[in-house]
C-alpha cells in the first residue's frame, strides 16, 4: 500500500521523497510522514478515501494528529517500517488517567527520541531497523495502547475532516452581512 502511495505521490511532486516511520502493531499502525505539503495532502486524501470503504478498508479509525509546515530539517533520513511484535509488553496502560494532550505530548516526545536514535543506530542498514527496532530500543516504541487511545480521541480529525478544514478557509458570516475583519498586532 505505502509503496504504491509514495510512487503515486512522487509522480506529482518529484524531487521530494517521503521519509518517516511506520510502526505496525497487531491492532493499529502509527505513521510519521515527512515530505512537502503537496505530498502530505495527497496521502491524507488517500487515507480519507479509505474511510469510505467501510469495514473492508485497510485502515480503520484513522486520525490526523499533527501537520507541521516549514520544518527546517527532517527527523528521519529515510522511510522505515518496523513491526512491533506482541512480545513487547508494558506494565500498565496509563493513558486512561491522562488527558488527551498529555498522551499526545508523551507520544511526540517518544517519537523525537526514536528519531534521534534511528540514524545513529541504523546508518548503514535500514533493513536492520525494519527487523530489529522493537528489540534494540523497546523503551522508544510508543505503546499500542497510546496509539489506540489517540485514534479514539474525539479531539483529532479524521482525514476527511482534516481535508474539509484545510480546503475551506475560516470565513464566519457576521450578523451585519459584512465580511469579517482581520485582527493583528
Question: Can you walk me through this structure?
Answer:
This is TEX47 protein. The protein contains six helices and three strands, in the order αββαβαααα. The chain has helices at 2-12, 37-51, 100-121, 126-136, 144-152, 159-167; strands at residues 19-24, 29-34, 79-83. A hairpin with a 4-residue loop joins strand 1 (19-24) and strand 2 (29-34). Helix 1 crosses helix 2 and helix 2 (37-51) packs across helix 6. The chain starts with a helix and ends in an 18-residue tail after the last helix.
Estimate the strand proportion: 5-15%
Query: Runs with pLDDT <50, length 5+?
Result: none
According to DSSP, the number of beta strands is: 3
The CA-CA distance between the termini, in Å, is: 46 Å
Number of domains: 1
- Biggest sheet: strands, sense, closure? 3 strands, mixed
Averaged pLDDT, please? Answer: 76
Query: What Rg, in angstroms, do the CA atoms define?
Result: 18 Å
Tell me, briefly, the overall form: globular
Helix proportion: 40-55%
If helices are DSSP runs of H or I spanning 4 or more residues, what is the number of helices? 6
Organism: Eudromia elegans
Pfam families: TEX47
Protein name: TEX47 protein
Notable characteristics:
185 residues, mainly alpha
Give a quick precis of the structure:
This protein is 42% helix and 9% strand. With 185 residues, it is mainly alpha-helical.
